[in-house]
Amino acid sequence: MAAGEKPYRVYRGGRTKGKVPLQRRVDAPRRDTGRRDGAPPDGGRSVHRRQRRRWSWKRRIGVGLIVLLFVLVVWGVAGYLALRSGVSSAHERLPAGTQSALTKQNGLLLSHSSTILLLGTDHSSLAARATDKHSDSIMLLRTDPGRHRLVYLSIPRDLRVSIPGHGDDKINAAFQLGGPTLAIRTIADFTGLPVNHIVIVDFGDFESLIDKVGGIDINVPEPILSNRFDCPYSSSSRCQQWQGWRFRKGVQHMNGHRALIYSRIRENRLNPAESDVTRGERQQQVMQALLSKMSGPGMFFRLPFVGGDLLKPITTDLSENDFLQLGWIKFRAGSVLHCRLGGTDQGGGYLTSSEDNLNVIQMVQGNSAPQPPKPGSGPYGAGCVTGPQQFK
What we know:
Layout: H1 57-92, E1 114-121, E2 137-144, E3 149-154, E4 160-163, E5 167-170, H2 173-191, E6 197-202, H3 203-212, E7 216-220, E8 224-225, H4 236-241, E9 246-247, E10 250-254, H5 256-264, H6 276-294, H7 297-310, E11 314-316, H8 320-332, E12 335-340, E13 343-347, E14 350-353, H9 357-365, E15 383-386
């Protein structure tokens, strides 16, 4: 040791003037020191970069399901709000006092039977009594969730019944004389079935409703050549040569206009045995196909866009929750029963009620097994058939 040199080194505290020299850059090449214990050379600090972990397929599926669920919830809420807007407008079109004639629903539609009166009219203004027309079609839809069944009951519009306060007349005259309120009371008194809800369809806008749901599929039981009405041509000469509306036999897709024509045909020139009762059966087909389309899964994705306009042709007391329940009942229905009341043609355009109508009401209520019209009962025979089978 040199003279005057201390055996230790003195370090001074405080800041160093100027820049502090770096010990070593991280990316600088390391000097091989021959060490194998993993320690950095010269006592330096080593830096390790963590590799990003890839998402597993389970995690990706989980996140995808959460996103899908969120989109479905948002879509469902948007569709519900659009439907509620349309239902609110449909309630406003219902004449005052109509709900007083309805029998209050016991519980939910999902768990209790309910009877819905379906009226078709070709006049949109229900308040204009002076120009109101007869109800063009009369039908009862009875839900039977206990049996997972829907029942359609057609009532001939020319059936002679007692109208409260007006004596005997055609059953469709009740709508003209007293609007939906009198129609409800007349039909409830005649059938003995309490009417819980009412739906009035304006045939003037009916075709737009079918177009909004994308059309419907109808199974036409036999070829049809109608009488001449609503000529599709603007030229009078072409209308004179036109023979009528034609429908081939079998399943076919119909737009709103085509479905409306099909439901209004009163005479089939290829089958003179058809009657106004047969027209009621076609209306049942159209209504059932429309309900199936409106309660189908495809409507869920279109509801936010068409929900507000979907009920424009409809006047009803049904709430938005009732419509959703009705759609679920229609979806779960395992069987469909088609029934009709009948009568005897007594001339003058009137039908006298058949004795078999009482038995049909029992079939509608599920108190007896469905039976088709009796052989030889003619085109106005009363009875019920199950499924897609047609009346003979």
